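Ticket #4471: complex job returned nothing on first submit. Input attached below:
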Amino acid sequence: MTRSTLLISLAAGITILALLLAAGCTSSVTSPAQEKKQLTVFAAASLTGAMTDISKTYEAGHPDTKIVLNFDNAATLRTQIEQGAHADLFLSANTKHLTALQGEGLIINNSVKIFAKNKLALLIPKENRANITGLSDLAQPGIRLVVGTQEAPFGDYTRQALGKMANDSAYGLLYQNAVMKNIISEEPTVPSLVAKLRIGEADAGIAFASDVSEGDRALVTTIPIPDRYNVIALYPLGIVQESMVKDQAAAFAQFITSTEGNAILVRYGFAPADR
Amino acid sequence: MTTTMERICMRGNLPLRILVAILVIIAVLFIGIPLAALLLRVPPELMLSSLQDTVVIDALFLSLVTASISTVIVIGFGTPIAYINARCQYPGKKIIDTITDIPVVLPPAVAGLALLMAFGRRGLVGQYLNLAGIDIAFTTIAVIMAQVFVASPFYIRQARTSFAGVNRVYEQAARTLGASPLTTFFSVTVPLAITGILSGAVMTFARALGEFGATIMFAGNLQGKTQTMPLAIYGALQGDINASLALAVILVIISFAVIIVIKILTEKEEAAP
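Support reply: We reran it on our side without changes. The output follows.
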């Protein structure tokens, strides 16, 4: 009994070793030259809809390129790149994280450019049970509000916007405090914020105007926030220094800023960057 | 017993023993190196300064309070389930056994979504609670519910096994001597099963402390209210990585303490005849 147990565990161990060796061998086999070039793009979660669309369009015109998209909070993506995650192109939702990576020498300096702009908006579920018609309603007691975390760009901008409103006599400090009190959750990404609205757990949220995807527009309404309180977010992109496919990355970056790419961005609620 | 153990450990040919040793070392290093890396990244002064950060303090306090409450709740509800499932045959026993075990295999994010669909304000139950003016989701209560949901099987399973291991002769003796069923349970069964009960409770506490997926789905993320340690680690990673590391080290230390407590408890049992 005991001896057979020992034998079985030994056999298992040897199998694991054999598998490890086998894995080592297969990965060293050289791949055929005409294979598709894989381009890994790290993009801020607010770009989910637009970038999925843009990369599909691009792939259709460039059968030699396969684009792998990874969406998350821009700060998380930055940490991942700092920790050595493989990415070829980084699309951030604010300049802070891209500039930081540039400072660390992880992004090719002359590849950086602003490709889109975005503004904050008030997001309300279609059925609007809480009867919210504008910014002033956010201060009503009992409103369940969701915003981004302080670290996520859209959460940072929300706080900046509320700060501007606090300094304006039309709203003031009391308004800002009342709104902050109504926050029920600080969401790390925009999709998780929009989900809270869609399932009716929150009465209102503040995120980018572009954050309501086409599919969600039937469920979530956007109310614009006036420019004097709004924060204009600049979306920069940059090619990662370590990239093995810099030419492909540059070509795709070119496409994002082209008229065709811009048109898709606009369709998703972004504003085109100045040229 | 000792002779068979010695036979396995002392005999066998040399190459075999070397191979086993290599496998053991790889396994230990695989777990040990990341833990060491975490501890080495946080010098004591960084740890001390992070402990003054309100995000860290709030998360630590909230986590300890909610995990403690969750453990008490799990013991309260889990003990009867564990006992009847260890001792009684009744229709539907298998079903109850399966349902109480499900959270172990369920991904926590699924657990969180399920809780939200049940107790969110549009949920199966939550819509009626909402009419009564009670909102559970995105409150500290939701944090506790997520922890109880995810961590309860650790206690229930362990307690069930321990109750099943108690020799009924002792219970019958107490009953024939005139003790009521409840007295028998508390003064005979529980003391005999106490090791398993305690280590189950400690495991539940540890699992509750580490809960992330269900909590962020069902309770959201708000400092001081629903942002527990794992959520703060995730949140701080996007900004102040030092706060993240300090919290991570605290969790590692607590995990070590938990394992040591369980080891001491179970060794006591093995030492007992």
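Chain B has a mean pLDDT of 88. Closing as resolved unless it happens again.
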